[in-house]
Amino acid sequence: MMAPRTHTKLRIIVASLLCLCSLGVASVSDWRQHVPESDRARANPYALDADAVSIGKKLFQQSCAQCHGDDANGRTHKPSLRSEDVRTATDGELFWLLTNGSVRHGMPSWSRLPESQRWQIIAFLRSFNRAAAASHQGTTKSATIGK
């Protein structure tokens, strides 16, 4: 049987670990709560521009791939940009994050990039969603045709 003092220390350690773990989970998307409504509602002027996607890809390779990987799937301790959190963020929220960064999580501010280039990076990130949807739609059509 443990001594009362050891038991109390163990409880404190377990409680501390649980708190740290919950902070780690909550911190993934906590940046979104800091985005002002006016920024959240901003629309990407390059949203449907195919040239912006290819330019955004080049900019991503130059500025983002070092941390997030060439395929945007993330690297050790750096998040995937194909995550649900990014997919559900508005373009305005992503623009705000690129502009302001999240220093607490190791994300630098990219405000030195011209505004148009930040929007083009977002257009590139959004192209993942369109490609995945098209792939899913093609799979669904193939399954229907085969019946």
Task: Please explain how this structure is put together.
This protein has one domain: Cytochrome c-like domain (Cytochrome Bc1 Complex, Chain D, domain 2, Orthogonal Bundle), CATH 1.10.760. It has seven helices and no strands. It has helices at 4-26, 37-40, 50-63, 65-68, 84-88, 91-100, 115-145. Helix 6 crosses helix 7. The model is unreliable at 13-28 (pLDDT under 50).
Layout of helices and strands, plus pairs?
Blueprint lengths: L3 H23 L10 H4 L9 H14 L1 H4 L15 H5 L2 H10 L14 H31 L2
Helix pairs in contact: 3-7, 6-7
Beta-strand segment tally: 0
Class by alpha and beta content: mainly alpha
Number of domains: 1
Mean pLDDT: 79
Largest sheet: none
Straight-line N-to-C gap: 66 Å
Strand content: under 5%
Helix content: 55-70%
CATH class (first level) name: Mainly Alpha
**The CATH fourth-level homologous superfamily:** Cytochrome c-like domain
Cα gyration radius (Å)? 20 Å
CATH second-level architecture: Orthogonal Bundle
**Count of discrete alpha- or pi-helical segments spanning 4 or more residues:** 7
**Which H/E pattern describes the elements?**
HHHHHHH
What is the overall silhouette?
Answer: globular
Q: What is the CATH topology?
A: Cytochrome Bc1 Complex, Chain D, domain 2
Low-pLDDT parts are 13-28
Work out the oligomeric state of the chains in this entry: single chain
